[in-house]
């Protein structure tokens, strides 16, 4: 398979890329790294990327941002950071990418445990995650040519514990190989419209 | 209680307004009707409305739109209709309205069954609904002065069956008095962060 991994140099993306590279042709897209440049908040950048790489068998997205801050301090523009990047960036990867997807191919988006179990300062991130979950359930009804779509929603991953532990009191870290398995289930499995929740004790 | 009902002249809002008017002071906001004018996709309009009405005990929102169309035909701008109106319109009602809310007051937002059980042509509407569900779960952790927030997610309501039945094959219509009860539960009850699902057999 020819697999595009958006954010393939990130905390989760690098482990996902390393795994798929063993058996598949992997193309990594990143803002400042990887094989092709991509700013996922910029639709023209998504268009240009797909024109460059052509037909593919799978798109995996482990990228996208949203602003973490207290609700009282979040401006409307702050909410649009997540809307343009993690939300519409992923919607646009599907909207545009479906025209480059081979029959039977798959999209695998990513969110996080916040969508189901938010913590303080995550109104924007939770909102964007919940949006993607419902989007995946809706769009799987309409994709053609047996193209599938799923989303991996992971708890606090082991490799991010050092930076994020204080935000997630009592959350059990998720081992990286389990998170990677979420993406493997989506790409190499047969399901569609699935929210693959990689949580531990929630 | 002094209750602001956004969309209080709509299909659901008119029944909700009629009910609360029996026991409470109700102010209806609408684009072209009601006691105060409001375009909920316009943040300045929300600011002006709250300046006009002053302190309140409850905000109920039964308004907001999103584009219904096949995923293949939805442009990026089409998705932003729902993002600006049903999604950020409701977020902004909370973001701005919390400064006018009396202690112990409540917000009650609205979505629909699409967020959990989408049907064809609802990628945008489902996405926006899922976003609001997760937003409510996140923001309830941060609201101060015992201010509560819930969301009523209703199935196809009886009064909309004639227009929408064909979109919802096999969905059991929800009687209007049950939908109204969802809003009563939120406004007069004690819960917060609740997604009040008014579904029948889903």
From TrEMBL, chains A, B:
Q: Which InterPro entries match?
A: NAD(P)-bd_dom_sf, SDR_DHRS6-like, SDR_fam
Q: Which UniProt keywords are present, listed alphabetically?
A: Oxidoreductase
CDD domains given in the database record: Lin1944_like_SDR_c (cd11731)
* GO terms of molecular function: oxidoreductase activity
**One protein family per Pfam:** adh_short_C2
Which family is it part of? Belongs to the short-chain dehydrogenases/reductases (SDR) family.
The record's PANTHER family line, in alphabetical order, gives: DIHYDROANTICAPSIN 7-DEHYDROGENASE
- What protein does this entry describe? Short chain dehydrogenase
Q: Species name for this entry?
A: Desulforapulum autotrophicum (strain ATCC 43914 / DSM 3382 / VKM B-1955 / HRM2) (Desulfobacterium autotrophicum)
Read off the lineage from the record. Answer: Bacteria, Pseudomonadati, Thermodesulfobacteriota, Desulfobacteria, Desulfobacterales
